[in-house]
Amino acid sequence: MPNVVVLDYGSGNVRSAVRALERVGATVELTADPNAVGECDGLVVPGVGAFDAVMKGLRAVDAPRLIDRRLAGGRPVLGICVGLQVLFDSGHEHGRVTPGLGEWHGDVVRLDAPVVPHMGWSEVRPPENSILFDGVRNERFYFVHSYGVLTDPAEGMVGPTNPPRATWATHGVDFVAAVENGPLAATQFHPEKSGDAGAQLLANWIGTL
């Protein structure tokens, strides 16, 4: 049974994520202990609220270094909601620009849509051969967000590295709904609140550990 750590840095209500991961077959610990974060089979980085607040919480538990170290060793990491957004270069909220973790190129900006926040169930468009969306390619997932990434994280990448593969959704504009990039994956939606489809996506991720 894979051992998963949900990173505990003060982000909102993460108990639903813990329970959802347990239901699909993981042993789950909610902690920021560096040893547990480094040694677990899979690390989940949740995120609720403002980009700047999430980054402050992550820095307070040395998460940028711990995440970078895991990825350097090819150890799986899954970001959820703002946990996806902070993996990009920067967040633009309320007139402030906050540096992110910079694992992927792109900026988090306010959605240009008639109604914001984007709250509810939306279809997504995964790439071919997606692992996360195996068996749930045509399902809807639950979103709650006002900001997103509008550019392809693979844009501008050069060299032999495998580019990140984006899944897209639309709310006023096209935005990144998920990214798969070797050991690093993330979803803008909440799989733990997305019913059977979300459970299958989490099970697919657990299956890679």
Portion of residues in beta strands equals 25-35%
Q: Which structural category fits the helices and strands?
A: alpha/beta
What's the domain count?
1
What order do the SSEs take from the amino end to the carboxyl end, as H and E? EHEHEHHEHEEEEEEEEEH
Rg (CA only):
16 Å
Give an account of the 3D structure.
With 209 residues, the chain is of the alpha/beta class. It has one domain (3-206): Class I glutamine amidotransferase (GATase) domain (Rossmann fold), CATH 3.40.50. The chain is built from 6 helices and 13 strands. It has helices at residues 15-23, 34-39, 51-60, 63-72, 82-85, 195-206; strands spanning 3-7, 27-31, 42-45, 77-80, 90-93, 96-99, 107-110, 118-123, 140-145, 147-149, 165-171, 173-181, 184-187. A hairpin with a 2-residue loop joins strand 12 (173-181) and strand 13 (184-187). The radius of gyration is 16 Å and the shape is globular. It starts with a strand and ends with a helix. The mean pLDDT is 95.
List the helices and strands and how they pair.
Blueprint: E1 3-7, H1 15-23, E2 27-31, H2 34-39, E3 42-45, H3 51-60, H4 63-72, E4 77-80, H5 82-85, E5 90-93, E6 96-99, E7 107-110, E8 118-123, E9 140-145, E10 147-149, E11 165-171, E12 173-181, E13 184-187, H6 195-206
Parallel strand pairs: 1-2, 1-3, 3-4, 4-13, 5-7
Antiparallel strand pairs: 5-6, 7-10, 8-9, 11-12, 12-13
